[in-house]
Amino acid sequence: MQIVTQHTGFRVFFLSFEVRPKPEHPAYGEVDGAFAATFVNETSLGQAEIVARKFIDEVGWEIEGLDDSHRVALESLPRSHPAYAKVQQALSDGIVVTFHQWPVGADDADEGFDPRC
User: Fold this and answer.
1) DSSP state, residue 81
2) What CA–CA distance (Å, rounded) separates 73 from 50?
3) Residue 22 falls inside a structural domain
4) What is the mean pLDDT of residues 90-111?
5) What is the pLDDT of residue 106?
6) 116 inside domain
7) Is 48 among the domain residues?
8) Are 8 and 49 in contact (CB under 8 A)?
9) What is the DSSP string of 2-69?
10) What number of CA atoms fall less than 13 Å from residue 31's CA on the CB side?
11) Which of 10, 15, 53, 71 could form a disulfide with 38 if both were Cys (CB 3.0 to 4.6 A apart)?
């Protein structure tokens, strides 16, 4: 798992992307893909998606598609929820992306996977 941060703006939105490493990515050929669990502190969902897509591209991943997106209120999460700390971090840093990777040849089944964690 790789966690990357960068600073931006105002409300926290969760976006989950399915991504693949670009040929120049260090894990290319070893990692087949990942879910990029993204928390973005921005003014709107549209702006959050723009920021997230740019960031993911800049760190060497090609986006296959957007799986989920919605606003996240910190006060709606129990402190014990795995996303709680990431929302807090996004509020201070602007963007937090966790790449939940799977190796080349891995089973495609993702039952029970929660990308917010």
Assistant:
1) S
2) 20
3) yes
4) 84
5) 79
6) no
7) yes
8) no
9) EEEEE---SEEEEEEEEEEE-TTSTTBTTEEEEEEEEEEEESSHHHHHHHHHHHHHHTTEEEEEEEEE
10) 23
11) 15
pLDDT tens for 29-46 read 999 999 999 999 999 999
Query: Structural domain tally of the chain?
Result: 1
Q: What backbone torsions phi and psi does residue 93 show, to the nearest 5 degrees?
A: -100, -20
Give the mean model confidence (pLDDT) for residues 45-62. Answer: 97
Residue 111 lies in a domain: no
Mean pLDDT of 101-113: 70
Amino acid at 100: H
Q: pTM of the prediction?
A: 0.81
CB atoms closer than 10 angstroms to residue 6: 15
pLDDT in tens, 87-99: 999 999 999 999 9
